């Protein structure tokens, strides 16, 4: 019996951790009545027991096991709870339905404001929820994001409706017109909301919070007319049906927002808390909602015009009505008129309680509200007439005079900026003005008619009474005109602007702390729901040939959500953060370069920009609760672990491939055409433009003027050909290029400029005197004003020309100097003449491009992506400053090397420490290395570590911070030992295997690897898994307290690692390495100690010295090493029973 009870307890024991969201993921196959209303824990219990939940009877009211939060305005007035059906009958004698069946009709501003007048006046949260629903109904081309095999939802052409998020028992999945939730007999409803990276099931009841008078504190009421808003007016019900969807959505969103229920104790403040960490649009759509705070009007207008459609005129129609409906027509040729993607742009304006109504007609006065921006324009709605052709001298006399007197309006085109906006809370502080239409005095037609100088003609007969159709059209036009608001007027009231970005319109990546396990028919997308490593950052690559924008959002599960779900976290949970850090491979950075930072307890987003090219970033994410990060960009992005991005970094970007293909094609056309020395053909221009820079050219940074770009490219081409081709073929191709490039110096070796010139000969001549000695003395007297010269005789003065002598007087030296200068000048003229003849011969000689020449060029330089990449890399190697002018410089491959080693290591039972490999790498040139070690056992990741030791010094290299620094290696004698191993969280019960992968990225290719280290040419070797010796022994108390030991025979240089662990974590142990000399003397070499565990990662064992006698006797060269483990028993530690310990050597 007890065994059965223990089995039942183990089945029902569902452990709750902070990695599980209280709201389970929504799936189509779980809309069963058996599991209806079950929370996360109850649902897991029901699945484990293999039975459904308790059968819900119609007369039993469902009780929510979670706490239902309320905003402050409702908490302060809360008197009790009532079911929605009872409240509707008692208060209004009305029936209850979930939604309004109006054939796809949208929410009406007047109906919502009149019906929920009291709630909207007191609750800011309810105003936000209903405003967001109002705007989503007007979103064009809406689709449900994040669909997969077990969640498919079709949105009808009518667009988004709030009822699509509400489910009642017995509903079918799939969406569409069949999605019609009915009343739930037990009062339990499912609301589907997006939260922490998935659509979630949020269970709510139809219980309504009421105040002392029985009025609802959340939106639940029938539709009233305007008279109900007056203080002493009678309520006239226009619809005898109460809709539940506003109540259910508000209650579900409040569960995600989780406001603090204890902050208003003893306070008289009645306004709702801001709840800024809650984003309603993100929860309703699963999209990234990005908020901008822009004060500059021009910058704000630029952002709006890039996100919404611009109003344009029709070229073939000049009527007034056709231009009003231009939102459904194709945009014209005006700049920025085409919107590449679908987004939802909203603006938040501050409260306009004290603003006069005529400030923004139709909008003020109102609460703080969100407005949907539908369209923008800086043109008049009515297309002006073409300006009359007038002589320039008449402009001042006629045109300027007409403008001054208001007679030129029909020709003028003012560029006043307008926004077409709609919102639910317009005139929310004066809803009685909603039905008040604009008088004729402020309509466009009235102003146009009364602007004329001649009086209007009175209409008579049939024209006196317009038709009903005409009146309806005019009313519709007036309503549309009321939506146009001057940008300058409303910009002063704007607090922020938000853009809702749909993931299906962008390159989309997502990261999750605990992504759900999904079994799909198709291979899963590796860029979605990437599991984040626990002890390392994730890496990001973004690349594009133009300026890039990366949008990042982070959603964290608020700790109060656990509290409301009866799963409280006792300790304090700090806000989570996301740090985006930019870096470059092989460039050490002591301090991280932060690009973006987010810190939140709920939801937050930001946008960062990158220059054209390829960039690499690290994503540091920290949170003790479940979290989800979303990344969107129009450019190509890749997110993954370090090895994944290292593999992506060695591949050429697609747009870089297009650049190389264009260069190769242009060269092929360039070589096929006949060349002329006097003019350039189209093929020549195409080739010279194919390698032009696409970014700004800064001469100071590049080191050369942009006019030297062709010479720089020819230098790189010449260097590439010289490295790849034999001498004969190289000279043949240079002869061709001398003619094609009009460059006689192409292919010639660089000669150092001669230091001999006429000027140098004159300066360096020892006999530089040109005057007589007497004249030189007189000049020196005047120049130096030396009084001693007068006292001395001429014979005492030193000779001016030191080289002159009796045999070689100054005259002969001067004649020699003059002859040398003349010979040098003659040689210069002859050389210039020869170079001119050679240049004319190279330019005038007709050359023939043979198939062999084209074959050499195709195979070595311009034939494929690899050779073209080599050419451009040589260009950037010779002129590194030019990288700043080319976006393609960061998108090429071939600048670094990448190697991957894979292996399998066995895992023995009751073992947590698993060695992977131990290899000796030899370095042939100075190099920087990035190491990355990944391993997994089944589907679970294993924590990996590695160490690097210098075999010459027998010391460990500084364990660099793997995120910021690299390992620097230099050539040595015995190489470097790289050791990798993994540590399991829990020991395995049975034997298994761990698959490991070592990724090594080097700044120079093929100079650091495992090889035989031969002088003539090394042979690369694979990395083998290590051989592990695992011993399990029992400690028997002895006098010397020796736990055990290992004896090792060494025939060659060996490196081993040793680890010992005892079952007592407080036991102090010491491992001693000893060896026995030939004389029999025992020598102690090294020691290693630890408490509970000893880890000795690097032990280098050397054999005996080789002698002539030991060559034929192998045993003579053997050295025996001992590793003894000694324990230290403290008085507090008593060995009551035998002590187990495990030792591993490999």
TrEMBL record:
Sequence ranges assigned to domain Globin in this UniProt record: 630-898
Residue ranges of every copy of the Calpain catalytic domain listed in the record: 61-401
SUPFAM superfamilies: Cysteine proteinases (SSF54001)
GO process terms (BP): proteolysis
GO MF term set: calcium-dependent cysteine-type endopeptidase activity
Sequence intervals crossing the membrane: none
Coiled coil regions in record: none
Signal sequence range: none
Family annotation (PANTHER family): ANDROGLOBIN
Name the record gives this protein: Androglobin
Organism, as annotated: Parnassius mnemosyne
